[in-house]
TrEMBL record:
Organism of origin: Rhizobium ruizarguesonis
Family matches, as Gene3D superfamilies: 3.40.50.2300
Keyword annotations of the record: DNA-binding, Phosphoprotein
Protein name: Response regulator transcription factor
4-aspartylphosphate carried by residues: 56
Domain HTH luxR-type, chain residue ranges per copy: 142-207
Domain Response regulatory residue range list: 5-120
Length: 207
């Protein structure tokens, strides 16, 4: 049986060592790279191309920003966030950026192994605690409530629904393209949409 190769990136040495040791003691897992920053994650992705990359969120360079770098350097790698953050917006942001899973650090070794195997199969994995929070937010209109958008976000969505690109939306509203991208990240989180096309369809239906 071929081992699942894993990269572990977390800026807390003791925690990182604990995760590495736990995985190494279980059959079928092989940690082939360790790091403490988003730069380290990018290097591991380029040099080792692991099957799974475990990323902390709060580390030098930011775990969320590391997601796109990892996937750009190793498209076949599945990114799994391993974090203490129970913020729903952070979870949605991670998934929007391409992460396949979101696991809270209180998880045991068996639970982590299950999450790794799940995302490796191509299925998203979210810790049960976080799944419940996302559901609660949705039921209370948090992540899918059109009314939760700011006036500026509504302006952006009106133009997205017309098919305009971020660049053209910026020109129309007098905003920098990166500002429009930031608004889109917030909008997708609030609408619970996975991409701008889905968001645009939702927006047209609700108007």
């Amino acid at each position: 049986m071929t081992s699942i190769t894993i990269g572990v990136v977390d800026d807390h040495p003791l925690f990182r060592e604990g995760v590495t040791r736990s995985l190494s003691e279980m059959s079928g897992f092989n940690v082939i790279g360790e790091g403490a920053s988003s730069d380290d994650a990018a290097v591991i992705a380029s040099d080792n191309r692991p099957d799974i990359m475990l990323l902390d969120i709060s580390m030098p360079g930011g775990g969320l920003s590391a997601i796109s770098d990892v996937l750009a350097r190793s498209p076949t790698t599945k990114v799994l966030m391993l974090t203490v953050s129970e913020d729903v917006d952070t979870l949605l942001d991670a998934l929007q950026r391409g992460a396949m899973g979101y696991v809270l650090k209180g998880v045991g070794s068996r639970g982590l192994a299950e999450a790794i195997q799940t995302v490796l199969s191509g299925t998203r994995y979210i810790s049960p605690t976080m799944s419940a929070k996302v559901m609660e937010n949705s039921l209370h209109g948090g992540t899918s409530d059109k009314n939760s958008l700011t006036p500026r976000e509504r302006e952006v969505m009106d133009l997205v629904a017309q098919g305009l690109s971020n660049k053209h939306i910026g020109l129309r509203l007098g905003l920098q393209e990166k500002t429009v991208k930031h608004h889109m990240t917030q909008i997708l989180s609030k609408l619970g949409a996975s991409n701008r096309t889905e968001a645009a369809l939702q927006w047209r239906e609700r108007r």
